[in-house]
Amino acid sequence: MRHFAPRSLLLSAATGALAWSALGGAALAQTAPGPTAQVDDIIVTATPFGVTQRATTIATDVLDEQKLAIAPATSLGDLVNGMPGIRSTDFAPGASRPVIRGLSGPRVQVLTNGLGQIDASSVSPDHAVATDPGEAHRIEIVRGPATLIYGGSAIGGVVNIIDDRIPETLPEGGIEGRVSTQYSSVDDGRGASGHVTVGAGHFALNVSGVTRKTDDYDIPSPARSQVLADSDGEPRGEGDKQPNSWSELNAWGVGGSYIADKGFVGLSYKSTESEYGTVAEPEVFINLEQERWDGRGEYRFDSGPFAKVRASYGHADYTHTEFEGPGEPGTVFNSDGWETRGELIQREQNGWNGAVGVQALERNFEAIGEEAFVPTVKIEEQGVYTVQRYDLGRYGFEGGLRYDRRTLTATPIGETAEVEREFDNWSASAAAFVRPQAGLFLGLSLSRTERAPSEVELFADGVHIATAVYETGDVNLDTEKVTTLEGTVHYDRGAFTGDLHVYKSWYDGFIDERATGEDFYFEEEDELFPIYQFVQTDADFQGFEAEAAYALWQSGDRKLSLEGAADYVKADTDLGPAARIPPWSATARLAWTSRTWDLAGEVRHVGEQDRLSDNELPTDAYTMVNLRGAVRPFGDRNVTVFAEAHNLTDEEAREHTSFLKDIAPLPGRNLRVGVTYAF
Fold first, then answer.
1. Are 455 and 469 in contact (CB under 8 A)?
2. In whole angstroms, how large is the CA radius of gyration of the chain?
3. E strands in 392-523
4. Given a cut of 90, is residue 4 above it in pLDDT?
């Protein structure tokens, strides 16, 4: 394991000292769940002080513990795929990141408890996220750039994986936890996860783990698409399995907290190891290992302008090795670093909430091997921000401001002189909302966000096997800027509920990857690769996300509902349509819920995509039929048995957002069964 940098140690010590000194004066009394206990519909990712989904102009989604308990054992991108405005890179079962409003990679930030992953998942679509959804108690998703507290890397949105590895409250009754196991037929997949928190006096200990193993998954058609076969004049071939699509994951962690009546302080450790086939190459597989330490604390004040102070710190060592075959290690990607955040939460006064915070990070990234297309890079960032909200009941206002400095230092491939690029970025947002009648919320927001170019966009220079191109960065790229206007409608009255978000984004200096028209001969693979260059242009993104539900019949806890969702995004640059933009989609669902049974039938249609960037092929539309159900055979609901039939008609489906869409369709018909027990 790499050693902590001196600067990292100083910030860690300062964070710990702040939390411990605050708790030192706390009374050593038995703690009941305090103000930090979260209500299900409170979103902490959107603002540090928390806000309900139906009371903010920021577009949010939540997967709570109850939903996650019966969710598929899969990678993060595939889990959230299909939620309004969200798709997946769908690179492979072992590596899949979220795509939000057509944006992915360095524009979508994936967090663990509000801190970055400190991995290499944003560098390439074949790199997995180092945190598995099976570890989560809750996943919060924020669509759009309004979450400026996380900086420019959240210009497209945020996915925050929240776990309870550092307990913030003592478990009720002294112990609580959950275990879950499931099986899926399409890939002979076996998965299990669990966690337990034990409390004694002022201390709480959490132990958790997740394991998952899948074979190559079944496909309803040949792996090659008809579109690709027609394009290159070669046959589609045969096959009912997707080659090299297996995966295996093992992760475990332990954490503990000291909890007093005015706050807590805790520390956790997590180990993750994952292996998976890349799909892009028949013999290549990836081994991912990460060790991570986190510390977090909070103290609640009795009086004064601030209600509480929070601090968090994370440090990780990450290694990603690409094997060309059994025992043949190829390119190695290493990432080690730390991130810290401190926040002062203002005391609510007459509808006024707010917070001020600071953030800092340092990450060292290196790639070693013949296919290392990015040099060693050191990334540093320091930021300061504030967010404010004034809610007067019938109407109110939201706003925020952030400044950050990001520095990237590297010696470009083939050169000897070190290059340092420093970016000073400002981001701001303002919003107004009104409640003209009970159950109706109308909002309008305007945001301006700036993002520094990523290490790949600046320094890439080499063959990128995963995307089958030769990527060339531009060390002279400027800050990417976007102005977004978004309208929000929340409606919740009687039998009908609905949410609508309509947005338009204007990019100044949008960083786009475009074909140069030239090829590079890569001797190692004996193959020509098209050369792509990162360039800057202007771009416009526009679209909407809509959800609605109508209770057809309800009596007590029994309800029959008709539900629907739809989304659409259109993206144009001065050089033509942007690449890999998802087509429109619409979902209709009939759902029955009760104390004992939950049943749902769903039809989801995804349109064709024929608005194409350079060298893109069109993607056909598809329609999927899904059925799911859950039964709680005991009255206390502690045991849930669940089942799902996904893609019931065995439809051939391909995600336009995926680099591999024309050689890897989505899985075929799948029956998934499982059981979960909460205690």
1. no
2. 24
3. 395-410, 419-437, 440-451, 461-464, 469-472, 480-493, 496-522
4. no
CA 309 centroid distance within chain = 26
Question: Between β-strands 419-437 and 469-472, what pairing exists: parallel, antiparallel or unpaired?
Answer: unpaired
The three-state secondary structure class of 671 is: strand
DSSP assignment of 367-381: EESTT--S--EEEEE
The residue behind tokens 């001797």 is 523
Spatial CA neighbour of 558 closest among 587, 599, 589:
599
Confidence at residue 28, expressed as pLDDT on a 0 to 100 scale: 31
Neighbours of 578 (CB within 10 A): 24
Q: 675: closest CA among 191, 186, 209?
A: 191
Q: What is the model's pLDDT at position 175?
A: 96
The tokens for 180 are: 């879950």
Tell me how far CA of residue 370 lies from CA of 334, 456, 519, in angstroms: 15, 17, 18
488: Cβ contacts below 8 Å, ≥ 6 apart: 56, 57, 59, 433, 441, 442, 443, 444, 445, 499, 500, 501
**What whole-number distance in Å separates Cα of residue 179 and Cα of residue 676?**
6
Residue 247 three-state SS: strand
Beta strands, E only, 327-414 = 329-346, 352-368, 377-391, 395-410
The H or E element spanning position 200 is: strand 189-200
d(CA 157, CA 46): 10
Lowest-confidence region among 110-114, 279-283, 288-292: 279-283
Burial of 270 (0-12, 13-18, 19+ CB in 10 A): buried
Hey, what are 558's tokens?
A: 């029994």
Task: pLDDT band for 176, please (50, 70, 90 cuts).
Answer: very high
Helices (H), 356-497: 455-459
DSSP state of 95: B
Kindly report the number of other CB atoms within 10 A of residue 591's CB atom: 17
d(CA 52, CA 389) in angstroms, rounded, equals 12
Coil, strand or helix at 133:
helix
Tokens of 503: 């947005």
- The CA distance from 82 to 624, in Å, is 11
Instruction: Give 396-421 pLDDT, tens digit per residue.
Output: 999 999 999 999 999 999 899 999 99
378 burial level (CB within 10 Å; 0-12, 13-18, 19+):
middle
Q: Which residues of 67-81 are buried (b: 16+ CB within 10 A; e: fewer)?
A: ebbbbbbbbbbbbbb
Q: For residues 124 and 669, which has the higher predicted lDDT (pLDDT)? A: 669
What pTM value is reported for the model? 0.91
Are the C-beta atoms of residues 163 and 251 closer than 8 Å to each other?
Answer: no
Q: Cα separation of 88 and 110, whole Å? A: 13
pLDDT digit string (tens) for 543-563? 999 999 999 999 999 999 999
Distances in Å between the Cα of 574 and the Cα atoms of 440, 517, 539, 613 are 39, 18, 6, 12
Tell me whether strands 461-464 and 496-522 are parallel, antiparallel or unpaired: unpaired
Q: Which of 3, 212, 207, 15 is nearest to 94 (CA)?
A: 212
Counting Cβ atoms within 10 Å, is residue 239 exposed (0-12), middle (13-18) or buried (19+)?
A: middle
pLDDT tens by residue, 419-452: 999 999 999 999 999 999 999 999 999 999 999 9
pLDDT band at 371 (very low <50, low <70, confident <90, very high): confident
Which CA distances in Å does 644 have to 599, 630, 670? 10, 9, 8
Look at residues 658, 629, 667 and name the one whose alpha carbon lies nearest to residue 645: 629
Q: Per the structure block, which two tokens stand in for 251?
A: 């992760």
CB contact set of 400 (below 8 Å; sequence gap of 6+) = 146, 148, 149, 385, 386, 387, 388, 427, 428, 429
d(CA 11, CA 15): 6
